[in-house]
Amino acid sequence: MIHRARRAARRILTVLAGVAAASVVLSGCLYAQIPAGAPAPARTADTSGVSAELLPYYSQKLTWKSCGAGFDCTEVKAPRDWEKPADGDLELAIVRHRATGTSQGSLLINPGGPGASGYDFVHDSLDYAVGADLIEDFDVIGFDPRGVGRSTAVRCLDAKQMDDYLYGVVPGPRNTPEWEAALSARDKTFADACEANSDGLLPYITTVNSARDMDLIRGVLGDKTLNYLGYSYGTFLGATYAKLYPERAQRLVLDGAIDPAVPGLEVSTIQAEGFESALRAYLEGCLAGRDCPFNGSVDEALTDFRALLSSISRTPMKNGDGRMLTVDSMITGTIAAMYSQQSWSYLTKGITAALQGDPSVMMGLADSYNSRNPDGTYADNTAEAFRAYNCMDYPVEEDPAAEAAVITQLEAKAPTFAPYWQAPDPCKVWPHAPTGVRERITADGSGPIVVVGTTNDPATPYAWAESLAEQLQNGVLVTRVGEGHTGYNKGNGCVDQAVERFLIDGKAPKDGLRCE
Q1: Distance between CA 32 and CA 98 in Å, rounded?
Q2: Tens-place pLDDT, residues 480-505
Q3: Which pLDDT score, from 0 to 100, does residue 285 have?
Q4: In whole angstroms, what is the distance from residue 15 CA to residue 459 CA?
Q5: What is the CATH number of the domain that holds 213?
Q6: Is 234 part of a structural domain of the chain?
Q7: What's the CA gap between 148 and 382, in Å, rounded?
Q8: 256-315, pLDDT tens digit by residue?
């Protein structure tokens, strides 16, 4: 049997590009009691330029109910198929925190994913999602995109089945035909369950459709143009919106950018390189402290860490609840802690415990990333929606030469993660063909679009922010010099001021602003 090069694992790819999972669990930032503003005056829905067949959607009347602590919530009906709006509806869950001052209108927030809940992100951690000045000036809107959470959602497996899928030990030596066949069979079972349990929704779970939903939300809320803050995958959603509706894209901030022109194979490779760089930065900081489980130079510590990964790959560790810490879960836990420099101490504790034969801390990090609760239930459907979006958004690439080149590049630039970053593409067994394209987005005719990039962002490397800002006709690049994923509201006053002045006053920062 000819053993072709394996494609970089898309199941690790873009779910790493989000702030929602790390925001509450890892950095401990919880919503503070922020006083609610006076009830916002009702604004008339904006139906300008809307076709007759879409007018019932854009002119729908919303019924708001209190959701506690200054929040109210509602549901917006959207066409399941935007190309055939008569074919049925789906529902989009919306939560709003009214401006504590005089409202300028709505500010829509997306925390990333794809598949992360914008509803929960805003409701549960408002002051992490946005700063105080934005809370004062805008009705902050969190929404679950189609397929996600409280909206009409993708459904696949029950909790026990999800445990088996995310944490189960795959039989056979890693990266052998036996192992690949077992993994592909597991992916097929997952895909078949999504198709069976999602009521025909899967073909319509795309970023293009979600961007159209976002314009619908804007319209029914009565805003003439879009005010938007998108993190990570939310930058792809925002850029897609600007491509579709450039004249309405007037105040968009895209933080932790994804380059929409980069092919899926290259995306995964660049992410692996980003996490390799972040791992080196973590180890440098670890070695300078007192509790580091490693000694010597960064390179020597990397060698020891790779040995730990290799040992767990050969012999997974049994957790107290009976689950096994596999090397994939070890990698997931490691990556989860890379989102924020403040989370590095969790990784130190996890590695130290694992070296002593205790997998519980690393399993806890992986659980937080996978939205798994201590009682074995799952808090949301992030993993399921993530797969649904990626399999429709990313074209399947069938190029053995390119796949071989990717593995060579991985081994050279991300040697720690390379052995565990390869797997059969799970989207090859997805029940619907992808409709997305990978191409440059220029958004000709938009207002200024502020792109924020962090120099050592592991999940969305800085080069992507540079590229997106360059390809957008009116892109403006703001650079945060530092570690971790995304740049706004992370303690850098220069970045925060640039973002907030733009959203509040419409004054774009100088292109190339660098915030040390």
Answers
A1: 15
A2: 999 999 999 999 999 999 999 999 99
A3: 97
A4: 9
A5: 3.40.50.1820
A6: yes
A7: 7
A8: 999 999 998 888 889 999 999 999 999 999 999 999 999 999 999 999 999 999 999 999
Amino acid at 85: P
Kind of pairing, strands 475-483 and 449-456? parallel
CA 475 to chain CA centroid, nearest Å = 21
Distance CA 437, CA 208 (A): 10
Q: Identify the residue with better confidence: 136 or 265.
A: 136
| 170 assigned to some structural domain | no
User: For every residue of 388-445, which 3-state class applies, written as one string?
Assistant: HHHHHHCCCCCCHHHHHHHHHHHHHHCCCCHHHCECCCHHHHCCCCCCCCCCCCCCCC
Pull the structure tokens for residue 11.
Answer: 């199941």
* pLDDT value for 402: 83
Q: Is the pLDDT assigned to residue 448 strictly greater than 90?
A: yes
Residue 42 covered by a domain: yes
What's the rounded Cα separation, in Å, for the pair 324 and 26? 22
Q: Which residues pair with 475 in a beta bridge?
A: 449
Among 340, 342, 305, 336, which Cα is nearest to 417's? Answer: 305
Q: Give the domain extent around 94.
A: 14-152+206-261+443-515
Q: Which residue intervals of 224-359 are DSSP H helices?
A: 233-244, 264-288, 298-314, 327-337, 344-355
The one-letter amino acid at 280: R
Classify the C-alpha dihedral 169-408-387-461 as positive or negative.
positive
What domain count does the chain have?
A: 1
Any domain includes 283: no
Using CA of residue 108, residue 109, residue 115, residue 119, what is the dihedral sign?
negative
Pick the closest to residue 274 from 257, 250, 286 (CA basis). 257
Which amino acids are annotated catalytic?
A: 232, 457, 485
Instruction: Report how far residue 323's alpha carbon sits from residue 163's, in angstroms, rounded to the nearest whole number.
Output: 8
